[in-house]
Design brief:
Helices cover 35% and strands 16% of the residues. The longest helix has 17 residues. It is globular, with a radius of gyration of 20 Å. Helix 6 crosses helix 8. The protein is an alpha/beta fold. The chain has 14 helices and 13 strands.
Length: 401
């Protein structure tokens, strides 16, 4: 069945031939509504973990891209905490060959900032620059200021961005959830907000001094929002992302279950409210999932012992639509920009003839056993949401539906 047959089958009017795909990509969300269905441009997630090579028991390029397609995504950027770490051409080639063999959507790999993501020496940035989307040590903050400065200088010379997971190791103190009311009440070790925003503060100063294009991963604190807002006003070349769970949950929603454990952790209510304000005023440029699958055993050890990370590609639009659009916090046009136009513009990823078709009236409970991802850990399990993806098209080809 062709993409046009599929569109006609689900009742999307005006489907008559090849120009339809280009028209879908060019027109606004509101203009694309049929009586029953809504068409969104193909989403772009600049922060996912597909675990291959090295950890294919958690996820593979094949399962990760199928999961993404089910969530309406047609482009993703994969983080480099792999084995081997893509820190030189030979190591990167292992990953790019797997992508070529297995991906059903566009996959753009990051290269590491430092060798092995160990923070001891800079990676072969010049050797891999032509084949990666940007440089990141995601999962680890670059602790050395002089090393981060040099990385920014080299990235700027190469015309590439530094994309940073910001975390001051000496402030972690063995924490694994937010250092807030829940941690205090239940005897858990907390991660303080300073561990995130202090490194953002340092990096913003370095970005200002070097002129490097800089992007901050998964911000979670009110101080991070304020720092980035101020830096943008000063003209620093900075963008940032947050994730769906930080916008709709806080540490008051925690349960004694590993599916609520991620890094950074769910913060306090004031942080969540500041993040929403950052989305509304444009301080936060995009929403990324930080899709990070683990095995069931790795997520079965409660808050203290489970691995950090949750899956998010198949729930992002439904969760955000249910909690933000239906509650009139943002419009669906704004949501489309956060999930597609803004990340594509910043990371220079073209849309092409990519779109997804959604039934926004469909109401159902999130069931992780239905995921196409190998990961099952989500804090939204069992939650009732609206919006179901019916069809995802990549370059005129059906990749889901």
């Amino acid at each position: 069945m062709t993409v046009f047959d599929k569109c006609e089958k689900i009742g999307l009017s005006g489907v008559s031939g090849a120009p339809f795909c280009a028209e879908i990509a060019a027109r606004s969300v509101s203009a694309l509504n049929s009586p029953e269905y809504t068409v969104f441009p193909g989403f772009c997630d600049v922060h996912v973990h597909f675990r291959e090579p090295g950890f294919s028991y958690k996820e593979t390029i094949r399962t990760g891209t199928k999961s993404a397609a089910r969530g309406g995504y047609t482009a993703v950027c994969t983080m480099p905490n792999l084995d081997p770490v893509p820190d030189c051409p030979a190591h990167l080639r292992v990953q790019t060959e797997l992508i070529a063999q297995s991906a059903c959507i566009d996959v753009f790999p990051y290269a590491a900032i430092t060798v092995g993501e160990r923070g001891e020496a800079l990676a072969d940035m010049e050797g891999v620059a032509a084949d990666v989307i940007a440089f990141s040590d995601d999962g680890k903050g670059v602790q050395s200021e002089s090393m981060m400065r040099e990385a920014m200088e080299r990235a700027r010379a190469l015309g590439k961005m530094i994309v940073a997971h910001c975390e001051v190791n000496e402030l972690l103190r063995g924490g694994y959830i937010h250092a807030g009311d829940y941690a205090a009440a239940h005897g858990h070790k907390g991660i303080c907000a300073e561990s995130e925003w202090q490194q953002i503060e340092r990096d913003l100063r370095l970005a200002r001094e070097t002129g490097c294009a800089y992007h901050v991963c998964h911000i979670s604190t009110k101080q991070s929002v304020a720092l980035i807002r101020s830096a943008k006003a000063e003209g620093v070349d900075v963008t940032c992302e947050t994730a769906p769970h930080y916008l709709v949950m806080d540490d008051g929603d925690l349960q004694e279950d590993g599916r609520f454990k991620m890094n950074p952790p769910l913060r306090g209510r004031a942080d969540r409210e500041a993040l929403i304000e950052g989305v509304l005023d444009g301080t936060i440029d995009m929403i990324a999932t930080d899709h990070a699958p683990h095995s069931a055993e790795e997520k079965s050890r409660g808050l203290a012992g489970s691995a950090f990370g949750i899956v998010g590609l198949e729930t992002a639009l439904p969760v955000l639509y249910t909690h933000l659009v239906k509650k009139n916090i943002i419009t669906k046009e704004k949501l489309a920009a956060l999930l597609s136009a803004n990340p594509r513009e910043r990371f220079n990823i073209p849309l092409g003839n990519d779109f997804s078709v959604w039934d926004l009236n469909a109401q159902y409970r999130v069931d992780p056993e239905e995921f196409l991802s190998m990961g099952r850990a989500t804090p939204f399990a069992g939650e009732t949401v609206f919006a179901k993806c019916l069809l995802t098209v990549k370059n005129g080809q059906v990749v889901y539906g």
